[in-house]
Design goal:
By secondary structure, the chain is an alpha+beta fold. The chain folds into 3 domains: 58 residues, Structural Genomics Hypothetical 15.5 Kd Protein In mrcA-pckA Intergenic Region, Chain A (Roll); 90 residues, Pseudouridine synthase I, catalytic domain, N-terminal subdomain (Alpha-Beta Plaits, 2-Layer Sandwich); 78 residues, Alpha-Beta Plaits (2-Layer Sandwich), CATH 3.30.70.1560. It has 7 helices and 15 strands. The strands form 3 sheets. Strands 7, 8, 9, 10, 11, 12, 13, 14 and 15 form a 9-stranded mixed β-sheet that branches. A 4-stranded antiparallel β-sheet has the order 3-2-5-6. Strand 5 and strand 6 form a beta hairpin. It binds uracil. The site of uracil (URA) has 8 residues, from helix 6.
Length: 248
Amino acid sequence: MSKAPASLRLDRLLANMGYGSRREIQALAKNGRILLDGEPVRDADRRIPVTGDLPARMTLDGRAIDPPPGLTLMLHKPLGVTCSHKEAGALVYDLLPARWRQRDPAISTIGRLDKETSGLLLMTDDGDLLHRVISPRHHVAKRYRVTLDRPLRGDEAATFAAGGLMLEGETKPLLPAVMETLSPTLALLTLTEGRYHQVRRMFAAMGNHVTALHRESLGGLALPGDLEPGAWRVLEATDIAAIFAGPN
Ligand code: URA
């Protein structure tokens, strides 16, 4: 994955966005089916600036084109789908337009949620952004709503806040995490790390069992209440800024 180039030939740009081979794009252009600012672009060699406003300016057969490279989106991940490009069963990528599987640079998830975790999942083709969000250096806080099998004992918040909890099979203790109790079996847990099955393992270390897990926010970016499970939307620059604007 790499950052979006400043400009690309029309045939390369649309082929990289999954609209067909370069030869097919050349034919579409020649036939006047691609318009930029209302004018046909018949020359597929023409270099097109790769800017976020292209979908508002370019159409193919009268329909706005997809967002160009530099695409980041939020998905309300439903239960039962896997964050993987190639495992068996339903995948998060199946929830996006089929053409997007052909995109180059490819879209990847920013971190992962377990198959049986729902909530805010970010996806991007911007490798730099992906690394900034997952890098421990940036301390992007991840807030989870956790439903438990048994009532909380009462010492969980203090144990998590102190840091130093050692998860089974690990050699490095956990960083401090913030837990807020909403009811005897419901809590909000905010982490700045992203270890494998971390939330489930933290509660297992406290003798409990997580029965439902939902991610509500990443940094200052929350899953909007009107984004249904399985639905997604493209992020604006202000949303991306919010990820790094805390809380952390
Ligand atoms: N912690 C977990 O246990 N699972 C997730 O999906 C995310 C955090």
